[in-house]
Every structure is written in C-alpha cells, then in structure tokens.
Design brief:
Elements: E1 12-15, E2 18-28, E3 38-45, E4 51-57, E5 63-64, E6 67-78, E7 81-86, E8 92-96, H1 101-104, E9 114-119, E10 122-127, E11 131-139, E12 152-157, E13 162-166, E14 174-178, E15 183-187
Antiparallel strand pairs: 1-2, 1-5, 2-3, 3-4, 6-7, 6-9, 7-8, 9-10, 11-12, 11-14, 12-13, 14-15
C-alpha cells in the first residue's frame, strides 16, 4: 500500500468501498503547521462516473485497486464512441467522447504507445505516451532566420489542439508535443 504522496494520476484506488480513478492531484503545504503536505485528489467512481474530491495527508496509506494496462491502437469512431483495439488480442475498448475529451486532442491513427487502463475488465481511462507526433494544419507563415529568437506563434494541429510553436515552424510540418504540458518539444524526426 503506497502513501498518498506516492500516488500518481490515473491510478485506481479503493476508497469507501468503491473503486476510483484519480484524475487530478493537487499538493498543498498548509502554513503554520508542522505537519506534512496535503494531497487533494479528484477521483471518479469507476462504476458510476461520479466525481469525488478528497484530501489525504502525505503519509496516509491508500489501497490500490486491481488495475491492468493494455497496449492499444486507435481503431475508429462510431458516433460518440471512440474504439481502441488491443494490440495483443484484438479486444475492442469503447470510450464515450466526453470521458476522454482531453486525450482525444493527442490521438490520431498513427499515435503509438497508447494504453487502456482497466479495472476488473472494464475500461476506465486512456493513458497517453509522454509525447506524440502531430502535423500542423494552420499557422502563420514561417520567418526565415527566426531560429535564434525565442518568439512563438500559435499553431493548430491535425487533431484540433492549439499550441505555441517557434516562428520558424511552417504548415505541414510534423512536430513532437509533450502530452503532459501540452507544449511543443521539437520537430519530429523525418524517417
């Protein structure tokens, strides 16, 4: 059993006789206390989808739920459902568009390293790779000789995600995006 300070995002825990998936963690250090940090966790019930916010002390022990990870690839869209296929055994996993709205901005047919998190065989979340490669579909024209400047411009990517990119980047280029920070990392390696 890990302490609250050791728990990460997208971890499934058992709390109040239910299984919750942690979506967000905020750490705070109260002033005037000699005690440790507090961790406010936003969790969603796996069965009902209801939201729960709870604050744990840093050294409070948390029970982990039985969570499995399955490497998947994006398969197709069926109405409001996104379907992902298990790479090992071709099991389809269906997600409602609203439940993975943040992740959709980083997913296309070529995205590799996706994982579906399941609790007792039920898919509960999509875990993104650390970075993804996406194509710029709309940005201001590139400026020659601008590589030395640190100025940026907005760019819209093939999935609809908007990020700031350096001025020397042009339409049609494939770039690497950090999925945790939603930031430009570099040009993608041309293969």
């Amino acid at each position: 059993m890990p302490k609250a300070s050791e728990v990460k995002k997208n971890t499934a825990i058992e709390f109040n006789n239910n299984v919750y998936l942690i979506r967000d963690i905020e750490r705070s250090v109260p002033q005037g206390r000699s005690g440790g940090s507090l961790y406010r966790m936003r969790m969603y019930d796996v069965a009902t989808g209801s939201k729960l916010d709870h604050t744990f002390k840093a050294d409070e022990m948390i029970n982990l739920a039985d969570l499995s990870r399955h490497e998947v690839s994006f398969s197709y869209i069926d109405g409001d459902e996104y379907v992902f296929m298990d790479i090992a055994d071709y099991t389809p996993y269906h997600f409602n568009k609203d439940s993975i709205a943040d992740e959709i901005l980083f997913i296309n047919e070529e995205t590799q390293g996706l994982q579906v998190l399941t609790v007792d065989g039920t898919p509960v979340a999509i875990e993104l790779p650390a970075n993804v490669e996406l194509v710029i579909v709309e940005t201001d024209p590139s400026i020659k000789g601008a590589s030395a400047s640190a100025r940026t411009k907005p760019a819209i990517l093939s999935t609809g995600l908007s990020v700031q990119v350096p001025e020397y980047i042009a339409n049609g280029e494939k770039i690497k995006i950090n999925t945790a920070e939603h930031k430009f990392m570099s040009r993608a390696d041309s293969k």
